[in-house]
């Protein structure tokens, strides 16, 4: 990422210019009015750039994907931020004395832009498989939201001498709450294994939220801090980080369209709710020690109880889910014991029920047989693994039944590309495998090109054709290695190399080397 600062001229210029400007603001160069005007002009430019880069990133994603909707929302937030900065600049020019003080339009635009980001994050599909998982996610969210509210109440009470007036409520709404909720939501997306951004982009966005949230939280102290240089500098740094996050994601998508994975494993456990309880308890303790039993203390007490209840109900839901899974496991174990006791054998189906191709078990048997034969004759054996690109994201849009139809049509096309004697199998989900005995490298490349081209043709689904591409990994060698599992691992590495090298708009094949 940092290497791009040297190779990416716009990004490097923006970082260097903002560094100089922030240094000048902190050093007190120029008049307060000049520093404020420079801050708001630069912020508006950064926000427009953020909007443009986010929109460019969205255009590189599938038009029906949830990740594309996320980046469209990110671009819209940048545009709203820019409107707020333009309004702030207009007011500053009309009233130089209050140039550094944010006007209500600017604060409203910040709140609206943050709300857009929160909506697209919270509305992003997480791929949770059960209602229990979704309930636990929202309970986690509730616990962290309560901690965010506690932080806002604590701060507002500190700067407002215990009173929670309109200004304090605005401070809570524009400061700690959206920051903590945004950080929590970003973390949850990362934990799912299918976020609409890379970890670099997430880190930059979270850092921008923290910087901006801290800056807004200390705004009520302007009566104490007469020179708001740190506030202006923090504002510039936050907007720069947001712009860089959009630019980094755009560059990553340009280099590798598969850098955003909309499928993957997710983790069901998060330490964030427990950290939220620790935060609320700490704030309550400080409030009791410094403020007695005033309104702020009672508000913090209520929020602490609320966060604890969220976590308790979350744990109860998790225990109920575990009990259900244990009951199902016990039932399956009893059935297995009954079958073994009765002397019944297991005979895996040779064909996949959905596609009619060979099953995973059949492919494993045939691969072992081919491997044994190759070991005896010292001949070559080759396999191809075929992955449909972004299939999970597509089925989330068109439905599982339509996805099954696409798999059936894809399997037919795959079989039509093979010669008699080759074996095509479905290994599971959207992954297929092809076993070729005695192939030449040229023949493997020819078959792979035919497969990629055939699977990229539109699929006749309803009134609107559906398009999807495929990535192919090829592995070939003589039967003199340890086991055929190594061949499968080599082909799997080649699949991911193909995904990284070729655009998912066209697909591609890669040979393991």
Structure explained in plain terms:
The protein has 17 helices and 5 strands. By secondary structure, it is α+β, with helices and mostly antiparallel strands. Strands 2-3-1-4-5 form a 5-stranded mixed beta sheet, sandwiched between helices. The model is unreliable at 161-173 (pLDDT under 50).
Described by its quaternary structure, the protein is: single chain
- Order of strands in the sheet with most strands: 2-3-1-4-5
User: N-to-C SSE series?
Assistant: HHHHHHHHHHHHHEHHEEHEHE
CA-based shape? globular
Estimated radius of gyration: 29 Å
Report the average pLDDT across residues.
77
Distance between the termini: 27 Å
pLDDT < 50 runs, ≥5 residues: 161-173
Question: What is the overall number of helices?
Answer: 17
> What is the count of β-strands?
5
| Proportion in helices | 55-70%
Strand fraction: 5-15%
Most strands sheet: 5 strands, mixed
Structural class: alpha+beta
Question: What's the structural blueprint in terms of helices and strands?
Answer:
Blueprint: H1 3-7, H2 9-27, H3 32-59, H4 66-94, H5 104-122, H6 131-159, H7 166-174, H8 176-192, H9 199-217, H10 229-255, H11 272-291, H12 295-341, H13 360-377, E1 380-388, H14 391-398, H15 400-416, E2 423-428, E3 431-437, H16 441-455, E4 470-478, H17 484-501, E5 508-511
Parallel strand pairs: 4-5
Antiparallel strand pairs: 1-3, 1-4, 2-3
Helix pairs in contact: 2-3, 2-10, 3-4, 3-10, 4-5, 5-8, 6-7, 6-8, 6-11, 6-12, 8-9, 9-10, 11-12, 14-15
């Amino acid at each position: 990422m940092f290497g791009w600062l040297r190779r990416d001229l716009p990004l490097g210029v923006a970082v260097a210019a903002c560094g100089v400007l922030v240094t000048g603001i902190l050093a007190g160069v120029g008049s307060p009015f000049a520093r404020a005007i420079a801050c708001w002009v630069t912020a508006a430019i950064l926000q427009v750039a953020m909007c443009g880069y986010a929109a460019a990133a969205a255009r590189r994603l599938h038009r029906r994907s949830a990740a594309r909707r996320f980046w469209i929302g990110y671009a819209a937030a940048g545009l709203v931020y820019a409107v707020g900065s333009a309004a702030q600049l207009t007011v500053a020019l009309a009233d130089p004395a209050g140039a550094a003080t944010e006007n209500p339009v600017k604060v409203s635009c910040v709140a609206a832009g943050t709300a857009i980001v929160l909506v697209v994050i919270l509305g992003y599909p997480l791929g949770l498989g059960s209602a229990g998982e979704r309930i636990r996610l929202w309970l986690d969210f509730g616990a962290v939201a309560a901690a965010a509210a506690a932080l806002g109440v604590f701060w507002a009470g500190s700067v407002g001498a215990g009173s929670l007036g309109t200004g304090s409520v605005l401070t809570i709404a524009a400061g700690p709450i959206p920051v903590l909720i945004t950080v929590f939501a970003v973390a949850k997306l990362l934990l799912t294994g299918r976020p609409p951004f890379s970890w670099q982009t997430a880190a930059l966005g979270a850092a921008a939220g923290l910087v901006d949230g801290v800056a807004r939280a200390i705004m009520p102290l302007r009566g104490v801090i007469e020179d708001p240089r740190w506030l202006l500098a923090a504002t510039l740094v936050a907007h720069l980080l947001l712009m860089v996050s959009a630019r980094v994601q755009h560059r990553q998508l340009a280099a590798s369209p598969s850098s955003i994975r909309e499928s993957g494993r997710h983790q069901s456990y998060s330490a964030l709710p427990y950290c939220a309880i620790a935060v609320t308890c700490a704030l309550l303790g400080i409030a009791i020690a410094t403020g007695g039993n005033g309104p702020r203390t009672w508000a913090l007490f209520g929020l602490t109880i609320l966060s604890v209840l969220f976590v308790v109900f979350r744990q109860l839901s998790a225990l109920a889910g575990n009990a259900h899974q244990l009951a199902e496991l016990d039932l399956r174990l009893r059935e297995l014991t009954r079958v073994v006791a009765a002397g019944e054998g297991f005979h895996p189906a040779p064909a996949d029920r959905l596609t009619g191709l060979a099953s995973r078990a059949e492919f494993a048997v045939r691969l072992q047989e081919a491997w044994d034969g190759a070991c005896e004759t010292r001949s070559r054996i080759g396999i191809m693994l075929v992955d449909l690109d972004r299939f999970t994201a597509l089925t989330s849009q068109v439905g599982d039944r339509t996805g099954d139809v696409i798999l059936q049509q894809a399997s037919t096309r795959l079989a039509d590309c093979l010669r008699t004697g080759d074996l095509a199998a479905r290994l599971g989900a959207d992954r297929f495998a092809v076993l070729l005995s005695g192939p030449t490298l040229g023949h493997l490349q020819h078959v792979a090109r035919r497969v990629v081209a055939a699977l990229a043709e539109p699929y006749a689904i309803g009134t609107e054709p559906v398009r999807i591409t495929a990535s192919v990994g090829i592995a070939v060698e003589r039967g003199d290695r340890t086991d055929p599992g190594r061949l499968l691992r080599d082909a799997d590495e080649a699949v991911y190399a193909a995904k990284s090298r070729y655009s998912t708009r066209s697909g591609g094949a890669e040979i393991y080397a």
